[in-house]
## 1
Amino acid sequence: MQTGKPYALNEQGRRDNNEDAIFPQKDQADEKSRFFMVCDGMGGHENGEVASASVCDSFAEFLKTVPSDDFDEAVFDRALNFAFDQLDEKDDENSQTTSKMGTTLTFLCLNNKQAFMAHIGDSRIYQLRKNEHGEAYIVHKTSDHSLVNELLKAEVITEEEAANHPKKNVLNRAMQPHLKRRCKAEIYSTQDIEPSDRFFLCSDGIVESVSDEQLCSIATKNADDEAMINAIRLLCEENSHDNFSAWLISIVEGIQPLEQTEEKASPAFPPRIAKKKSKLTRIIIACIVLLLLALAGYYLLPKETAGKNTKKPDTEVKSKPKPNGGDRNNK
């Protein structure tokens, strides 16, 4: 898989401090980067930002020794537990703060086998694609772990009511320290990746400012990734009341499904080898035929031609049957 240059946002917006964190840092990502994260902290000043930064730093440390092509769900689970352990260490259990720090998590790994996505909370991951008319649409979108989303899926409230619901910030899952039962990430992986697909990770500060329809419209109008991320920035600066952070990664060269790749990589007789064998076989057969013809000619020649006998050739020689080896069709 080959990607274009990744583009990021990590903006304070109208808040007093920035509780969002991203991995890698904006100036540390390039076309070779394969791991991306957006975390939205919560818990008030100097709490949410500690949690989000801690989780990003923990994953960064853990993934240093993990090749992207070896990454799978088991590796992710170990990284997630390591991040929880680090979060526990940073928490002051004796703190009198009533609001416990925590963070959401969005995680993306792009390798030669799949796109691996995991999330906790209401930060999102989108996979966008353009149809034959150049119009962008959503191939996949994560489902928020929030009270409002549960009410929406149960058809208790409408989309319009969800947008302004008084409890829209209440989460069903979040990464917090010293949990009796650590929450699991929701995981999704796909091999359905095509050139020009875009992966977009974002915090809810962008979700509240950019609807799905607007995101698709921006992706349709902007073939250039830098122009697209700047268009999103402008909308958030105008409409968002929260921090807003994102990663935008475009696919230059996608992957084929693994089973198809294996089938093509190991044919029973590779064409080039089969061709060489066929040519060699023809040469051997031609040599055998020439040898047999030469032997047949030697035995059928009149003896006086060979200069060894001047007697008249015996007519029985002419009627002597050819050796079996001289008949090409019997070989």
## 2
Amino acid sequence: MPVIVTDDNVQVRDATRVPRRTRRGDGRKLLILPLVTLLAITLWSYWPTVLDLLHEWQGNDNYSAGQIVPLVAVFLIWRERRAGWRARFTPCWPSGMALVVLAQVAHVYGLLFLRQAAERYALVLTILGLTLLIAGRQVFRRLFWILLFLFLMVPLPGVAHNLIAGPLQRLATTGSVVLLEAVGVSVGQQGNVVLLNERTPIAVAEACSGLRMLTAFVIVAAFIAYMVKRPRWQKAILLASSIPVAVVCNIVRIFVTALLMLHVSNEVGEKFFHDCAGLVMMPAAVLLLFGELWLMDKLITPESAARPGRADICVRSARRPARRASE
């Protein structure tokens, strides 16, 4: 390595040598061009799928909440930018290429057999594979849960939709009937039709099954679970509890609508159900989720608070004054 010798015989390193941090930063900057190129190619190849998702979000109220998932994912990635930038960028070719190939197989399968769900899930798998391929395992681990969050933007396949919507519709009808009987309303049930006082029918259609509320609550619960600093099992409970919370909120919505139709007018009840219920139920569901976190704080006592740990014992023994040798 060339050096510069001064009059004081002090060797100074050549100033042209690049520090390690600078070289690492330059290497990461060099990854931007291939990453942007691959993302552009992916967007071009999946452009019909992206347009199909946009039409689905705009035309199907059950999955309209999916359009906020990409925006939330971008925000979360921006929030984790410092931690991700400190990670080591080492492209992982075997695993990354395996995910990309799997995504392309699913894409071709969806194109050949007209399976829209396969094409949509292939888009998310391609994003996961490109992240692993370009950025490496460390960055992929840091962004793993955010990348999994992208699956929530994809509407359910037709088979899964039919398996979930029907039971939700019957559960919403039965639950509202139980609440109405509990407050003394004369009510009858014929399938998914609720008859109030033998003269006012309320049809709980498929659009009233609560699937729209369910998808929205799952997305909100996943966002809250990622943001809060809790153990993973508490986050899992929070995410799983969004399903019964959505069901309960939908039953309460039908119950309040029925009371308004009985005691005020049908117009007021329909206006509340279609216009105001969503604005009321979403804040109520968020409050229930935060109340669940508060309840877990009250019911669960950390072990460190119950008994001193090994670290506490060591600290206490270190603070104890040493005995003199004469003693």
## 3
Amino acid sequence: MKIIYRWLILGLASAILGFVPIRMDAAPYHLLKEIQVGGERKGSSLAIDEKARRLYVSQETQIAIIDLNQERVVGGISNMSGAHGFAIAPSLKFGYYGSGQDGRLHIVNLRGLRTFKRVAVGGDLRTILYEPGRQQIYAFDGMEHCAKAYEADDGDYLSTIHLSGIPGAAVSDPIAGRVYCNMEDKDEVLTINAKTLKVENHWPVAPGTTPSGMAIDAIHHRLFVGCANKLMVMMDSENGRVIATAPIDEGAGANAFDPGTGLVFCSCGKGTVIIAREETADKLAVAQTLTTQPGARTLALDPATHKLYLAAAPFNASAGQSSGTVPGGVKILVYGTDDVATPSK
């Protein structure tokens, strides 16, 4: 009962202060297990369907499916060419990926793992994003410097949104009706109005440069942007003001935010994940530097268990790099604490 009352008090305090309860006594993150996937790491991306308890590992020639409860590969989509990115619409039970070979957006029925529609988008697809508020899919094109928006349920074209530069990571805030996207070569974040499908703001990430990963705390209006100059920037998602920064390692990759703990994660190509804590509205502090594997920059977080999943390939110590094209070499590294949560069924 003391524990229950403790969390009730913390919950009340967080409601007053505007921040979620944070487990100050949580054990450090460490490696829990490895899941062998196979295939090539090139072009890999991770996407979690929390409700269905699935992790999708998108690669060049396949999308492997991992059951998160069993933590093993249970199926996949094969015979693909140039697959890049993967977005999930849980309510529709659809998945979306771009193909660099045919320049199309593929819409997959996740019930039967069958592609039922292919939409010509062209260019260099870099990021695929699902916006749940209006059920839209955004395909970000690095070659044409644009984002093309489609209806998520049937792939019907909506609009082409012209961007200021090369798009990187993107996130959505359905409450605010906005989509945010890094401009890698412009050192800024763009905001897109999900209703009008127009760019509204250009927000500099200075003192950060070359933004890469991005995550959002929609409740407290915070963006977290990993930058190439070894900084993670915390930005106000309502007005673009840079509030705080935290040091990270070389090779900024993906970012993730855990609303259940208030922790922010940034995977780095050097072989670390920087774990920072959103302590107050204007303070971001590094809580742990987690050693992973050099080259492991693709990251996903399961909010139900607070576990981290990173895609990795065999590391060639003599060459000082990952061998991303070794057949059957890709694996998923699973990290967590000793007291990770068990998802409700």
